[in-house]
Design goal:
- By secondary structure, the chain is mostly beta strands.
- The protein has helices spanning about 80-85, 305-315, and strands spanning about 10-15, 30, 35, 40-45, 60-75, 85-90, 100-105, 110-115, 120-135, 145-150, 155-165, 170-175, 180-190, 195-200, 210-215, 220, 245-250, 255, 260-270, 295-300, 315-325, 335-345, 360-365, 380-385.
- Helix content is about 5%, strand content about 45%.
- β15 and β16 (about 220) form a beta hairpin.
- The protein is globular.
């Protein structure tokens, strides 16, 4: 057998209409990524009972913990992930170009599909929300961005055809020949054919075997478990990443600043990952977001005391960064992204002398909302040719 290779994989994603539920019409968008670590972990809980022996009894299963970290490059094609991290979005423009203004708001949930295409094996992750977004702004090279997520559960899709009875979520599906089973979490019923979303499967099922559930569901297996994507034709948005040379504006306190050498920006949504309920099969019922926290560090060449004095006096400042491709108007090849932190305070950290070379000033900051016109701790304005992000 041939070992799976990272170069022969794909990740697709889209917004969910209902939390942790497969969309009625899967329309996945291709995600260009550098690395990902989607995984579901189910802990094994040991028993403490005593039975006149030092040998332990069989353990039991713990809760399902789905999490991931996706690393990629900042680009005008990841608007959906940016919105998923920030919350609300307002789009203007009836035709291309479009302007998407994102502010802190209720977070949407996403479904991700990870495909090991060389093995024809696909895994689904439902009910995913962005817990943390980190952006590394640098004067040259790609602008790295990462998204940390929490999710509800991992599943696999089983396609069927020849349906004569409807399947029901929550029941067990069984193969008539293989005798393999799986719990139904969703049914994308297309009439005669459709797709079941299964968890806790005991095997891959057999092509063309009878498939039933413990209710009225009846059909014939079309393929095997997780052997194909839920969307055979992903939308490919392309990938034209911003780099350091595409930074057209960088402002601190509303004025251009020429001596910043790095900005590290972090948005945390403080998700509550403990919404497990009795009878829920160890699956998170919801993943509520908490207070948004925007923080980071400004690193500057130590050319003046201006930034340090702001930290000493605890003066309010702001941060604006604009990346531009082409004209920046928003048509294909001419996109732009503006990230604005309208209100922030710098922590006081005295510049240190760590050698004979150039001295840097590092200013950690914490953002907030008080009276900014944006009414948001952070705002992103993306101009691109996509009508929906």
């Amino acid at each position: 057998m041939t070992q799976a290779r990272g170069s022969n994989t794909q990740v697709g994603y889209q917004e969910e209409t209902t939390f942790a539920t497969i969309p009625a019409s899967p329309a996945l968008k291709t995600l260009y990524f550098a690395s990902e670590n989607f995984a579901e972990k189910i802990a094994v809980n040991a028993s403490n009972v005593i039975r006149n022996s030092r040998n332990p009894v069989m353990p039991t299963r713990g809760a399902r913990d789905v999490s991931a970290s996706i690393k990629t490059e900042l680009s005008p094609q990841i608007g959906t992930l940016l919105r998923a991290a920030i919350g609300s979005n307002t789009t203007t423009g009836e035709t291309s170009p479009y302007t998407h203004t994102m502010k802190v708001g209720t977070l949407p949930s996403l479904i991700f599909e990870k495909g090991f295409t060389g093995l024809a094996a696909y895994l689904l992750y439902l009910g995913c929300k962005v817990n943390k977004m980190s952006i590394s702004v640098r004067p040259t090279g790609y602008q790295e961005v990462s998204f940390d997520l929490l999710g509800a559960y991992e599943a696999q899709a089983l396609k069927y055809d020849g349906q004569t009875g409807n399947f029901a979520a929550g029941l067990m599906a069984s193969g008539g020949t293989s005798l393999h089973t799986g719990r139904i979490k969703g049914d994308n019923d297309g009439g005669v054919s459709g797709t079941l979303v299964l968890i806790d499967s005991t095997g891959v099922f057999q092509n063309n075997e009878a498939l039933t559930d413990t209710g009225t569901g009846a059909a014939v297996v079309d393929g095997t478990l997780g052997d194909s994507s839920i969307d055979s034709s992903h939308t490919d948005p392309g990938h034209t990443p911003f780099d350091g040379f595409s930074i057209s504006t960088i402002q601190e306190g509303g004025s251009d600043i020429a001596y910043l050498s790095a900005v590290d920006l972090i948005l945390e949504n403080n998700l509550d990952g403990n919404s497990y309920v009795i009878g829920g099969g160890g699956i998170r019922r919801e993943i509520p977001e908490g207070l948004a926290k925007v923080s980071g560090t400004i690193t500057a060449l130590f050319e003046s005391m201006a930034l340090y004095r702001k930290a000493i006096s605890f003066a309010e400042s702001s941060l604006k960064i604009i990346w531009t491709l082409g004209t920046g108007a928003g048509t294909a090849g001419n996109e732009s992204l503006e990230i604005l932190v309208p209100e922030l305070k710098l922590s006081k950290e005295t510049p240190v002398i760590d050698g004979p070379g150039g001295i840097l000033y590092k200013g950690p900051f914490e953002a907030y909302y008080n009276d900014s016109a944006q009414v948001s701790t952070i705002q992103a304005i993306l101009k691109n040719a996509e009508a929906t992000v």
